[in-house]
């Protein structure tokens, strides 16, 4: 079995530059419906291998959407109290909060790419204007664990060996970083959107 899996992986073409571009495109997109607060953070993981993990009919299967939501809950990216639904797209599945609710979002592409968006808001009276370092680190750790669980569900043949990773904080120039919950130090010198690393890292 191990030899067969190794042979399968060796036959899959890898394209690191294309994977990096895919990860950057995902974190930079504005097509999101998530927490509804200004302190959002996104992470994208794009496989280096060029493959199709979700066939055209897969997004239409209700069980797949339920499995992906369960994986993100198990990983910690979707709290149990947040209602989430799966929407089929032309290129995979989008997981979004129920109408009129706020919460995390995720996009799982047919190529195995994964985007997870959540919040890195701090506490205190300026919670919606401050990036909390601890909350940011926790989001990245949890998102990585959730992405691994999602990949285990969709990559049945174990084709994905490496991924390109990028993270993004939109509207960073309007946010403070760190500090206490009752004081602000705005990061006005930052660009409108902070994307790291650029290019994405494997």
Q: Tell me the distance between the termini.
A: 27 Å
Largest sheet descriptor: 7 strands, antiparallel
How much helicity do the residues have? 25-40%
How many distinct folded domains? 1
SSE ordering: HHEHEEEEEHEEE
Count of separate DSSP helical elements:
4
With strands numbered from the N-terminus, the spatial order across the biggest sheet is 2-3-4-5-1-7-9
**Poorly predicted sequence stretches spanning 5 or more consecutive residues:** 1-11
> Rg to the nearest angstrom?
17 Å
Mean pLDDT: 79
Which structural class should the secondary elements be placed in? alpha+beta
Shape assignment: globular
**What share of residues are in beta strands?**
25-35%
Instruction: Tell me the number of strands.
Output: 9
Question: Topology, pairings included?
Answer:
Blueprint: H1 2-10, H2 16-28, E1 40-47, H3 62-75, E2 84-89, E3 92-97, E4 105-109, E5 114-119, E6 130-131, H4 133-154, E7 163-170, E8 176-177, E9 193-201
Parallel strand pairs: 6-8
Antiparallel strand pairs: 1-5, 1-7, 2-3, 3-4, 4-5, 7-9
Helix pairs in contact: 3-4
The gist of it:
By secondary structure, the chain is α+β, with helices and mostly antiparallel strands.
What can you see in these coordinates?
With 202 residues, this protein is of the alpha+beta class. The chain is 29% helix and 26% strand. The chain has helices spanning 2-10, 16-28, 62-75, 133-154; strands at 40-47, 84-89, 92-97, 105-109, 114-119, 130-131, 163-170, 176-177, 193-201. A 7-stranded antiparallel sheet has the order 2-3-4-5-1-7-9. It has a two-stranded parallel sheet with strand order 6-8. The longest helix is centred in the last third of the chain and has 22 residues, at 133-154. Residues 1-11 have low confidence and may be disordered.
């Amino acid at each position: 079995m191990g030899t067969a899996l190794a042979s399968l992986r060796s036959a899959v073409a890898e394209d690191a530059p294309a994977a990096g571009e895919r990860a950057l495109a995902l974190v930079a997109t504005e097509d999101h419906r998530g927490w509804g607060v200004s302190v959002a953070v996104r992470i994208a993981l794009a496989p280096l291998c060029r493959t199709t993990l979700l066939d055209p009919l897969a997004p239409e299967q209700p069980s797949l959407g339920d499995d992906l939501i369960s994986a993100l809950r198990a990983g910690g990216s979707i709290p149990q109290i947040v209602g989430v639904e799966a929407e089929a797209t032309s290129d995979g599945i989008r997981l979004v909060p129920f109408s009129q609710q706020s919460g995390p979002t995720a996009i799982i592409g047919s190529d195995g790419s994964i985007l997870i968006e959540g919040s890195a808001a701090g506490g205190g009276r300026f919670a919606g204007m401050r990036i909390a370092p601890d909350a940011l680190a926790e989001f990245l750790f949890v998102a990585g664990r959730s992405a691994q669980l999602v990949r285990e569900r969709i990559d049945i043949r174990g084709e994905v060996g490496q991924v390109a990773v990028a993270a993004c904080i939109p509207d960073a120039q309007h946010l403070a970083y760190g500090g206490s919950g009752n004081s602000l130090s705005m990061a006005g010198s930052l660009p409108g959107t902070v994307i790291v690393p650029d290019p994405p890292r494997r």
